[in-house]
Amino acid sequence: MKIRDRIWLWGQDVMSHHQVGPRKENIWNLPGINRMDPAEGARFLGIRNICRVVMNGSPEPPFDGEMEKLAGCDRVIWSVLGDSGSDRPGDVLDDLEELLALARRYPNLKGGILDDFFRPLSAQWATDQMARLPLERVRTIKARLHSAGPLELWIVIYESALSEYYRSYLAECDAVTFWTWHGEHLDDLAGNLSRVFELSPGKKHLAGCYAYDYGNCRPLTPGQMKKQCSVYADYLKRDLLQGVIICSNCIADIGLKEIDYLRDWIAEIGDETVIPADKEALPESKNVSA
After folding, report:
1. Long-range contacts of 214-218 (CB under 8 A, 24+ apart)
2. Where would I find the beta strands (DSSP E) of 44-119?
3. Is 247 helix (H, G, I), strand (E, B) or coil?
4. C-alpha neighbours within 13 Å on the C-beta side of residue 224
5. Alpha-carbon gap, residue 105 to 101, rounded angstroms
6. Do the beta carbons of residue 49 and residue 76 sit within 8 Å?
């Protein structure tokens, strides 16, 4: 298998990173204007797989029009649960039924992802309220997906979600995608990935690759870009990671030099071959308490 086959794009609505929340604010201080939709962003970056994720509640079901745009993609993962601003009204907060309907019509749809599944650690939330859906609902989602296709269930976690609390939720998913929200935490990337592997043994593991430091509302430094891409290239080649997800079409055309770096990086390593993993060679993880 080639590394290119394991690279994904995080795809969301045009301008959804510039216009966040009900007031459509540029909370991350992004420059420029975004015009590339997910399919265009994937072509621009040389990516054939897309995670198509609802943000700010958009798009709303039915999703066929958006899925049609991704007909040329090899594989698509659609959000069962969108970003933290995308809870659906009523008793059912997720988009499982719509995803299952899509899968019957589009064979390149391979699963669903739970985005922003865990609320940030704070005094506002009791421990049992940190997850946006009950564990039993996650089990139901997994069972329904597995019986249709079968389809995979993926989940998003961040560097703040590495305690034992998260283990039971990760156990219900087929793939764990790990994201580093604050640029300075990339210094701990290898150790944090090892902790993710410990919390979710036997799962498929992917890493999110940001081209912007959303946690600090500023561009990533050249050193930070080089750091994450170097680790990811090494882990992809050794099959320690089964994928990397580039974020995203929403900033692919706004003038960030980090996007040019990623485009060149994908072109450089894309045709290299994945070799068997040597998990004994992993760095030690951080000691994170429950």
Report:
1. 214/28, 214/181, 215/181, 215/182, 215/183, 215/185, 216/182, 216/183, 216/184, 217/27, 217/28, 217/29, 218/29, 218/183
2. 49-52, 75-81, 109-114
3. strand
4. 19
5. 7
6. yes
Q: What is the pLDDT along the chain (290 residues), one digit of tens a residue?
A: 999 999 999 999 999 999 999 999 999 999 999 999 999 999 999 999 999 999 999 999 999 999 999 999 999 999 999 999 898 877 678 999 999 999 999 999 999 999 999 987 654 555 566 899 999 999 999 999 999 989 999 999 999 999 999 999 999 999 999 999 999 999 999 999 999 999 999 999 999 999 999 999 999 999 999 999 999 999 999 999 999 999 999 999 999 999 999 999 999 999 999 987 665 556 666 545 44
Query: Is 144 exposed, middle or buried (CB count within 10 Å of its CB: 0-12, 13-18, 19+)?
Result: middle
Residue (of 248, 216, 218, 251) closest to 33 by Cα position: 251
Q: Which of 73-104 are b and which e, b meaning 16 or more Cβ less than 10 Å from the residue's Cβ?
A: bebbbbbbbbbbebebeeeebbbbebbbbbbe
Give residue for tokens 């597995």.
146
Task: Please give the structure tokens belonging to residue 250.
Answer: 């929403």
d(CA 151, CA 79): 12
The CB density around residue 6, as the number of other CB atoms within 10 Å, is: 18
Helix boundaries (H) for the chain:
38-45, 64-68, 96-105, 135-146, 167-170, 189-199, 222-237, 257-269
Report in angstroms the alpha-carbon separations of 205 from 96, 121, 194.
22, 23, 11
